[in-house]
Amino acid sequence: MRKNLRAVSSALAIFVGIFVGIFVGMTCGAGQVTAAAPYYLAVAAPFPTVADGVAFADVQAFWAGDAGALARATNDGSAPTLFVTIATQKHLAALLGPQAKNARVKIVAPGELASAVWAAQPSALAIVPFDELEPRLKVLTVDGIQLFDKQADVSAYPLKASAPATNRDTNKMTVVAMTGVTALVRGTAVMMEKKGLTYPGEKIRDWLKTADITHISNEVSFWDKCPRPTFNDGVTMCSDLRYLELLKYVGTDIIELTGNHLWDRGWQQLNTTLDTYDSLGWVYFGGGRNAATALDPVRYDIQGNKIAFVGCNWFGNDWATDEKPGSARCGSKSPRDLDLIIPLIQQLKSEGYHVIVGIQYAEYYQYDPKPGQVDDFNALRAAGADVVNGSQGHHAAGFAVNEQGFMHYGVGNLFFGDQAGDGPKQSMVDRHVFYNGRYLGVDVKTAFIRDFSQPQPMTPKERAALLRTLFAASGW
């Protein structure tokens, strides 16, 4: 009798297993999610934080009550308060075990987290779901893994919970690499001739090539009769057509035309340069064939993120006319007004675009911005710009960030490196991350230009020193 019951039970179990398997297969085939997906939690700090990462073991120790375990992630070395929402606290409890009673953890409402972290700096950190990040927060690596890097192997990322759907789908993630001044002339061109056309980009290629949209602000026109470069070519410049190989090598997608040297060898050379860009499939903004088209934005709908680029030249010359190509004017009566570009930003914002503005502003050789620059950049951001990029910055400069977006007063030189002093050799690539229709923030990469031409990633000591300088110049 018992054997018969066991046999019936076994048969029933097999039948139920088969039925459940069929049901699960049918529901999955119908598009319903039945399995848990990875749900990524980011460790974040106020944007003006020097530290770039934390160890998972230190997160565990902090959660267990060791207040000093994460002190190295704060600017002043103090024990931080960790801000989380109640939902995140539950995820962390499942991942890390029960929270110690003395753990310095503060619960805040989801919409208040970034403001609370910002107000409590420098002694503040946060753990926040990846898709809820915003530009006032700096995403820190955990055990060296950067969630803002689409190519990162996140299989070993430790702060990973489970949910019905993932909150970090790289098919919904767009990375835009914004850069500073490129001018393939003088010392940079000399070294290209000596060491190879791609030499300037070899140490930072991945920062540019792996972005979904790679921006280059090229200030100089290409010319098939450009003389061989020397260090003493002055400020009337052109670039050999062969130097386009460098821009191809780093994965250029979009060219900014707000520069001051587009007509150095005649406006005709800009026309043929634009022909070359067209033949390569590179789009351009901040200038164009004539005044009527110079302000035309470039629109993308990529991975479900609507992003638009628009730009103008506030400071320099070589503005487009009715008949000639050139850079776009920012204003109608005066190029230094903003009455042309601001309505365009507002229009693009109303169309649902994230707006990136590239602007050729005054070339200040200092880290801190002038009051007029602050006012003008604020006006662009207030009009709806998510990112304002000071593309003119031959000298590295500071930042401003709030819940509306990110401003960089001067990104520094990229491929142009023969100016005197450290400031013109401190180069940055801002990798902006958009996810599922939201702007999440930026990962600022730092390099130092060596050999008059080649940006090389900074050492941790060099990077920390530059960040401290820039944050101080930004008023933080």
Keywords:
Purple Acid Phosphatase, chain A, domain 2, D-Maltodextrin-Binding Protein, domain 2, 2 domains, 26% helix, nine-stranded mixed beta sheet, alpha/beta, 476 residues
Would you write up a description of this structure?
- The protein is of the alpha/beta class and 476 residues long.
- It folds into two domains: 37-167, D-Maltodextrin-Binding Protein, domain 2 (3-Layer(aba) Sandwich); 172-473, Purple Acid Phosphatase, chain A, domain 2 (4-Layer Sandwich).
- The protein contains eleven helices and 26 strands.
- It has helices at residues 2-29, 56-63, 86-96, 113-119, 186-195, 205-209, 244-249, 267-280, 341-350, 371-382, 460-473; strands at 37-46, 53-54, 81-84, 105-107, 124-129, 137-142, 160-163, 173-178, 181-182, 213-218, 222-223, 239-240, 254-256, 283-285, 287-288, 298-302, 305-313, 326-327, 354-360, 385-390, 399-402, 405-408, 413-415, 426-435, 438-450, 454-457.
- The strands form five sheets. Strands 8, 9, 10, 13, 14, 23, 24, 25 and 26 form a nine-stranded mixed beta sheet that branches. Strands 1, 2, 3, 4, 5, 6 and 7 form a seven-stranded mixed beta sheet that branches. It has a six-stranded mixed beta sheet with strand order 16-17-19-20-22-21.
- It is globular, with a radius of gyration of 26 Å.
- The termini are far apart.
- Residues 1-34 have low confidence and may be disordered.
